[in-house]
Structures are given as structure tokens and as C-alpha cells.
């Protein structure tokens, strides 16, 4: 839904709160006392109003106690036990911690969940928590007094309604209404994980989902509004007494909604994990760049010109770092100095970075100069088709199920990446044994459609001294076989090759062709300028789904693919195989291919 002009005053940056060393994951508005934030850096920070400070808030307490990243938070209003209030936090470490803000110390450690804690809420003096272990638990005076399996899949959020009932949202795509341990209603409608819930006073409650939508529900189960506008996972939703709704998403925006219409989209330099309203209507956002930001529609509280310009500069630099030109990141392109190197053949093309654009040049052999062709841009749908994780676009974002009730992990990968480096970084990030390295590499190569990939020859496994460690092999230290407990690696279920990253394929073929061109012994198998144009025409036919059943292939198209398949080195043919796979799926492509791959019995032989 496009942003529309309605009776609404636009929000602008009020201030930035810096202190966290990693993604800010959660926000809790603590009445007039301040703001609490949680982070992947394992800390909880309490920010208090400071009228004398330029940004009006200062970090007054850093709460240390979690051993992994911290997510959900809830506020305990001041009482006899907590004179300055308290905080309840849930973490990846499976713990629920209760903090006394007077001392900044943990006063209760609630143990019992088997997996990550995803939600915490107060129910009178009790604490209710939700977890990836599929349960809801009720805690009273530091002890678990009730526990029940709320869903068959991870529970991602829990809230308490003004009427006293609890509402839970799950990865099973449903929402459940609880009276005690009894489910009185199941809300069905979302098509993916329900990630966040919020009360909408006087109307019902809100839900945000990985399907990119936000819904407003009546307790009867009726959907009063569906808000669609985000282009990726919606991680959070909140409402204000004015009727405004705020949502935060992996598409790097916080969107403000009024009467079901998106009235403003606030760009961020990263994924927006959480967004909350302050009582005065200002907004707080938690971003993957580690910064907490306040936004206001009151001109008296808007940041000064210098701060606004600084933020716009941050945003611009972030966009440039993520911009892709012809399938490559802009920052990966060579500068203008690359044009000092002469071309090798007439018509050879080179793309260089000029400012924040990529510009193509063609080598003029007669004049011995690089002639400017024009600016290179990605197609309008490229950003939508490329998966996004934590605000970053990748060629692939794989779902990895490691079994044993563990949550699904996200593994990002670009075709140009070294899969061994990717596996190493991912295993460290997810705190998984490095002995799984080879399995992860094989998983990446299989699901990326790559036959093989050279690895860094300088790597030596610290246990075996070999270039790569094979799980199940003998370790020089343990003297016995490693026994990884993956249940669904390399892939749970069937991989359907019903789509392709065409820009990545073109990029890889161009890269290989350039490498062959620079090798005197292999120049004869390079693509000519005419063949490059022919290959582009093939890609266009495969990519243009609007004419999928009427587009035609010629024998010369197939002959070109077969030439590459049979003449190029085995390590370079995987992008060609990707094109052939998509050609097989094309009605006319399959018919033309059939002429070339039949045995004596008429059976089609796949390459």
C-alpha cells in the first residue's frame, strides 16, 4: 500500500542513543521513568530522561547477566519491592531475569525453558514467558507454577489483554487466546510466522508476521484491518492512543499507519527489530546498526540541522554500500583508474564506479580508448527478488534445521563468496561446533546449485592439519570420530529448482569469460561479442515470465550452451548448467533440447 496524504504530521529524527555494541533487539517503555533496550551484545540498558542533555536521554544503567543475546523486555512499575521499578528480560540463553533498577542487580533467575525466550509479560504479580520450546510458563515469586504446550511450533510472542486473557503468536502461523491454560479461540489468517503482538485499545489486538502483513483482530476472530506495505518480515508492531500504529521490518523501515493506510515510512541504515510509542506520541526504534533512535512530530523536539544532516549522510552511505550494479555491489566495482589499463579486444566492456553509479565503457581498438556506453543499473525487481537478512541483500538466505528442537537458523550466502569462509563465520556466529564445517559447505553448494568451489588452500584444520576437516573422521586430539547430531542437513525435504538468480549467473559467466580471455592457452574457448549478445537473449527469454509459453528458442541458442558445457573447464560450467536447468523447465526450451539429448531409444538424457 503506497504512502498517502491524510491528516497526519510527519515524524522527524529527535535524537540517537548510542552505547550498544551490536544489534538493538528490544524496547520497553517504562512509563515516565525512561526507556529500556536489549541487544545482541548481551546487555540491557536503561535510559533516563535528562533535560540538561542535548538528546534528552542518557544511559544510566547497564545490566549485565545474560550469557547470550537479549530480546523481550517488560516493565515492573515501582512498588515496595522495586522502589525505582524493575525490568524482566528474556534471552537466547533460555533464562528469564528479573532486575531491580535501584541496584542494577538480578534479583531472580528463572530457569525452566529449554530454548530461547521470545516474550515476557506481567499478569498481576506473575510473569508469563513464551519460548521457542513451544511452551508458555507462569512464574510466581521466582518459581514456575504452570507450564503448557501452547503451540506445536515455536511461540514467538505473548501479550496480556486489558480483559485479562493472554494472546500468543507462533511459527505455526496461528494466534491463540488463553483463559488460564485453556485455549478459547484460535485465530487463522497469516501465512507465515506470527512474530509480534500488541494491544489496540478499544478494538482488539494487532499481529505482525513474516508474511509481511499486519492485522487488526477483534476477539471474535474477525479481521478489522489488514495492512500491507512492507517488502520483508515484519518484526514488531505497536499502537498509540491516538490511533496510530508503528511497525518495524527487515526491509529497513519503520512504517506508521493510520486507519489502515501507511502515512509515513522511515528509512533506517539496517533492519528495524523493534518500534514502540512513547506516551507523548514520539517513537523509539531499535536498529541492527546498534543505535536506538527517537522520532517526533513535534517541531520543538526535532534534532538540529547538523544532526539531521549527519543522519541523512549515514543513510546515504549505507545505501551506497548495499547498492548493486549489474549484480555486483557498487563498492566492489573498480574506480576510474581501471580505465588506465588498455583493453585486449575490440568491444571489450568494463564497468567502473563513478560517484554512486556504475558506468559501462567499451574498448575502441582503433582509437585505443575506452568509450563511455552509459550508466548500468539493476532491474526494478532485483531488490525485491533478492532475499534480505538483517537488512542486507544476499543471493540466497537458506533455512537450516539442525534438529533436536532447535529453532530454524538463517544462513546468508552470495555466489561470489567462498563457502568455507561463509561456513566458518556462520558456525561461530551461531555458537555451533566447527566440526560441522564440511557439512555446511556441502549444504551451501548443493542448495546454491554449485557443483564445487575452490577453498582457501592456506586453511589448515587445527585438529588434523588438513585443508578441511571431514566430520566423522579421526581427530588428532580426541582420537575418535566426531559425531555431529544434524538431523536435517544437508536439506530437509526436496529442493525445487523453479527459479534462478539470473544476475548472479550472468555475473559469474562474465567473470569466467574474462579469466579465460586473459589466458593465452584458453582464449579460443572464450565467448565472442556476438555470443555474449546471444547468451543475453537466452537469459531474457528465461527471465520474461510474462511470455513464458510463447517465447521461442533457436537451435543456435542450444548449440551455444552445449559449446560452453563441453569446452569450458569443469570448474566453470556450473552457471551454464543453471541456465540449462531453467531451459529444461521452459516449454519451448525443453522441446529444442530434446533434439540434442535423445539416446537410441528416444529417452531424453539430462546433461
From TrEMBL:
Residues 487-607 form the PUL domain. PROSITE patterns: PFU (PS51394), PUL (PS51396), WD_REPEATS_2 (PS50082), WD_REPEATS_REGION (PS50294). Residues 362-458 form the PFU domain. InterPro entries: ARM-like, PFU, PFU_sf, PUL_dom, WD40/YVTN_repeat-like_dom_sf, WD40_PAC1, WD40_repeat_dom_sf, WD40_rpt. It comes from the Eukaryota. Keywords: Cytoplasm, Repeat, WD repeat. Its main location: cytoplasm. WD repeats lie at residues 17-47, 87-109, 148-178, 187-219, 227-258. GO terms for cellular component: cytoplasm; nucleus. It is found in: Cytoplasm. One of its GO terms (molecular function) is ubiquitin binding. SMART domains: WD40 (SM00320). CDD domains: WD40. GO terms for biological process: proteasome-mediated ubiquitin-dependent protein catabolic process; ubiquitin recycling. This is Phospholipase A-2-activating protein.
Amino acid at each position: 500500500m503506497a504512502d498517502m496524504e491524510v491528516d497526519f504530521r510527519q515524524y522527524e529524527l529527535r535524537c540517537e542513543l548510542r552505547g550498544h555494541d551490536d544489534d538493538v533487539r528490544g524496547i520497553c517503555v517504562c512509563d515516565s521513568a525512561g526507556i529500556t533496550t536489549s541487544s545482541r551484545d548481551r546487555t540491557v540498558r536503561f535510559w533516563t530522561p535528562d533535560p540538561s542533555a542535548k538528546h534528552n536521554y542518557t544511559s544510566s544503567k547497564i545490566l549485565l547477566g545474560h550469557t547470550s543475546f537479549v530480546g523481550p523486555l517488560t516493565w515492573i512499575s515501582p512498588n515496595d519491592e522495586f522502589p525505582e521499578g524493575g525490568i524482566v528480560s528474556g534471552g537466547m540463553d533460555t533464562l528469564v531475569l528479573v532486575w531491580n533498577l535501584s541496584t542494577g542487580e538480578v534479583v531472580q533467575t528463572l530457569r525452566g525453558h529449554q530454548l530461547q525466550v521470545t516474550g515476557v509479560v506481567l499478569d498481576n504479580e506473575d510473569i508469563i514467558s513464551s519460548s521457542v520450546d513451544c511452551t508458555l510458563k507462569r512464574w510466581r515469586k521466582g518459581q514456575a507454577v504452570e507450564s503448557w504446550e501452547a503451540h506445536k511450533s515455536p511461540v514467538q510472542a505473548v501479550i496480556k489483554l486489558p480483559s485479562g486473557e493472554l494472546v500468543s503468536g507462533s511459527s505455526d502461523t496461528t494466534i491463540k487466546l488463553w483463559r488460564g491454560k485453556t485455549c478459547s479461540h484460535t485465530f487463522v489468517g497469516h501465512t507465515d510466522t506470527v512474530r509480534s503482538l500488541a494491544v489496540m485499545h478499544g478494538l482488539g489486538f494487532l499481529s505482525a508476521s513474516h508474511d509481511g502483513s499486519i492485522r487488526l483482530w477483534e476477539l471474535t476472530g474477525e479481521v478489522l484491518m489488514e495492512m500491507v506495505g512492507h517488502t520483508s518480515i515484519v518484526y514488531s508492531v505497536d499502537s498509540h492512543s491516538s490511533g496510530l500504529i508503528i511497525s518495524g521490518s527487515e526491509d529497513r523501515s519503520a512504517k506508521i499507519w493510520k486507519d489502515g493506510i501507511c502515512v509515513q515510512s522511515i528509512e533506517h541504515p539496517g533492519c528495524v527489530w523493534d518500534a514502540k510509542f512513547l506516551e507523548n506520541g514520539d517513537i523509539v526504534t531499535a536498529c541492527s546498526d546498534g543505535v536506538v533512535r527517537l522520532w517526533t512530530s513535534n517541531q520543538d523536539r526535532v534534532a538540529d540541522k547538523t544532526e539531521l544532516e549527519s543522519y541523512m549522510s549515514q543513510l546515504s552511505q549505507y545505501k551506497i554500500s548495499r547498492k548493486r550494479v549489474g549484480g555486483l555491489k557498487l563498492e566492489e566495482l573498480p574506480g576510474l583508474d581501471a580505465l588506465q589499463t588498455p583493453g585486449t579486444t575490440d568491444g571489450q566492456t568494463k564497468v567502473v564506479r563513478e560517484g554512486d553509479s556504475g558506468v559501462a565503457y567499451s574498448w575502441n581498438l582503433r582509437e585505443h580508448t575506452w568509450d563511455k556506453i552509459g550508466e548500468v543499473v539493476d532491474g526494478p525487481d532485483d531488490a525485491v527478488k533478492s532475499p534480505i537478512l538483517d537488512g542486507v541483500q544476499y543471493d540466497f538466505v537458506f533455512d537450516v534445521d539442525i534438529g533436536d528442537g532447535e529453532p530454524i537458523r538463517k544462513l546468508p550466502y552470495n555466489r561470489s563468496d567462498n563457502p568455507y569462509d561463509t561456513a566458518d563465520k556462520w558456525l561461530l556466529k551461531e555458537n555451533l561446533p566447527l566440526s560441522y564445517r564440511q557439512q555446511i559447505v556441502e549444504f551451501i553448494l548443493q542448495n546454491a546449485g554449485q557443483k564445487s568451489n575452490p577453498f582457501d588452500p592456506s586453511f589448515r584444520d587445527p585438529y588434523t592439519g588438513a585443508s578441511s576437516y571431514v566430520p566423522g573422521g579421526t581427530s588428532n586430539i580426541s582420537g575418535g570420530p566426531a559425531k555431529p547430531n544434524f538431523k536435517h542437513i544437508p536439506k530437509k525435504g526436496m529442493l525445487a529448482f523453479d527459479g534462478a538468480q539470473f544476475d548472479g549467473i550472468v555475473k559469474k559467466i562474465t567473470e569466467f569469460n574474462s579469466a579465460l580471455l586473459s589466458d593465452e592457452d584458453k582464449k579460443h574457448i572464450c565467448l565472442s561479442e556476438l555470443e555474449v549478445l546471444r547468451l543475453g537473449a537466452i537469459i531474457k527469454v528465461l527471465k520474461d515470465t510474462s511470455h513464458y509459453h510463447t517465447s521461442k528458442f533457436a537451435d543456435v541458442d542450444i548449440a551455444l550452451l552445449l559449446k560452453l558445457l563441453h569446452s569450458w573447464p569443469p570448474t566453470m560450467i556450473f552457471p551454464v548448467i543453471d541456465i540449462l536447468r531453467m531451459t529444461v523447465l521452459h516449454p519451448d526450451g525443453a522441446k529444442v533440447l530434446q533434439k540434442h539429448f535423445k539416446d537410441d531409444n528416444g529417452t531424453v538424457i539430462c546433461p
